[in-house]
Structure formats: C-alpha cells, structure tokens
Specification:
Layout (H helix, E strand, L loop, with lengths): L1 H9 L2 H15 L6 H11 L6 H12 L4 H26 L3 E2 L2 E2 L1 H4 L2 H18 L5 H30 L5 H26 L4 H28 L2 H4 L5 H4 L5 H9 L2 H12 L5 H14 L2 H20 L6 H15 L4
Antiparallel strand pairs: 1-2
Helix pairs in contact: 2-4, 3-7, 4-5, 4-9, 4-17, 5-7, 5-8, 5-9, 8-9, 9-10, 10-16, 13-14, 13-15, 13-16, 14-15, 16-17
Amino acid sequence: MLEFSYFCLMKTTEAYQKQFSEFLNSYNVEREPKNLYQPIEYILNLGGKRLRPVLTLMTTACFGGDINRAMDAALALEVFHNFSLIHDDIMDAAPLRRGKETVHEKWNINTGILSGDAMLISAYQLFENYPPETFRELAKLFSKTALEVCEGQQYDIDFETRLQVSIPEYLKMIEYKTAVLVGAAMKMGAIVANATIADQNRCYEFGKNLGIAFQLQDDYLDAFGNPESFGKQVGGDILENKKTYLFLKAIENGSSEVKSELTQLFQNSAVKQDNKVSKTLELFVRSDANIATKDAISFYTKAAFDILETINIPSSNRQILKDFGNELMTRDV
C-alpha cells in the first residue's frame, strides 16, 4: 500500500494527460472512408482539458486499481464528449472550438452529423474490452448518462426561446448537460477499481457537484474570460440568447431598469453583436451577477469537497482529487 500511495502522489495531472494522450494516439488509426474518420481524428486531436478521462484514471489509481485497465472507459468518455461537441457546435452554429475551426465549418454539416454518430457507436464498443460484469455496469451507467446529456441539451435549446427560466431549472439543465458526465467519469474509475457501491456513488456525487461548478465557471469565462486563452468566442452565450446563471442572477437581483434593458437586448435581433455583448456585460456587473456566479462556483466546489471527505481512500489520495478540483476552479481556459 505504501508503494501505491507514493505512486499516486507522484502522478500529476499532466502525467495522467500524457499517458492518456499516448493511448488516444494508438486509437487514432487511419480508417476508411476518410471523410467519416478524419473529422473524428481532427476533433480528438484538438486537445482540450481531458477532464473526464483524467478523472477516470485518477479515481482508479486512488482506489489502488490499475489505470491501464481504466483506459478504455476513459477513452469512451472522451470520444462521447467530443461527439457531443460536434453536434453542439452544429446546433449553435459555432465557428470555433478550442481556437480552431469546428468540424462542420472545416467539412460540412452532414459530415459533422455522421462522424458524430460514428463516435457514439465507437464509445460503446470500447466497453466490450471489459469482463461481462464490468461491461454491464459501465454500459448501464453510460447509457443513463448519455440520455441525460441529450435531455440537458434539449433543455438548453428550449431555454433560448423561453422568456422566463428559473435558476433551479437552469441548474438542472447544466447538471444533465455537463455535470453527470463528470460524475460518470469518476464512478467508472471506481467501478474499474472494484470499489464498493457506496464509494462508487460517492465518487459520482463528488464529480457531479464538481461538474456543476465547472460549468458555472465556463459560463463565467464565456462572458469575462480572455478569448486567446479561453479558445472560444467570448460572449458566445450572450449572442445565442442563452439564459446562463449570469443572466438569471441579473434578472433576479437587478433593478427594474437592468431587467428591462437586459430583456430588450435578448429579444431585439437588430442589436449589433459587439454592442449586445458589451452592454450585457455591463448589466451583469451592475447587478452583481458576476459576483453571485463566483459565489455559486464556490458553493458547489465546497459541496464536492465535503462529499470527497467521505470517500474511503487514503487521505493523501483524497488530497490529489481536491487539488485537481481546485485547479479546475482557478482556471482561465
């Protein structure tokens, strides 16, 4: 156990990312037809934070499991996540992903849809490399999570045209669209490591709360982040009339003037894009929505860390997961 704990302590986030990237490279082999598989290779090679696969590997290691056994599960999550990004970008008409052309911009919409479909199927195939009982548990969790992600995406689309969205509704949307996949990443790592059912569920709850905080941070960075480091169009959520936590808090806490101006900005399609973004950001600050969002990020981060304290792993390994969570919440990308 001493040898394992030392190994886990010495394993940095960058080391997990590197090891996973090497495994990913072995997965990216040339296949036919090229117009189906090249977009898949393209988006998988755009980089990104690799948040989900790293959490899967890290969780397996923190329970004393072999991270090599967790690679297929980690890759399944990364493939699925990137599949959802291809389709999200099509629905959002987004020009950039991680600072590069989106798949549908580089190829076309039909290719983006079909390549995304192939990624979803490929993600399921990766679970076939596990023994029957592990396969069953991983596939069951994955199916539940994938469906919730689709439900979250539909809520997100619905909210764009609704005049009123409550904060609880919004939190449910980001839980389904983003956070459940983070929770699943950790639970899959625990499943591969043969952790107890109770600890598997605690890992899921830790990841889910961390995922909510992560998405709130993403919303904040979309409005107030640096476009060069963020890698996406800053103000994109505003231009798409998304009812983010910032928007909802501005409506809830702002003066009648702020509410009126904000509502008009989101209903008037004639407003120039640059003016819409700058004016909306001004209203977010005037209503202290930016501060409220930072407070919410802290709330869900603390909730995650409280659950983390109940997971039955060595305290040194628990600290690794806490450090990872802190890294996420202080990021600018």
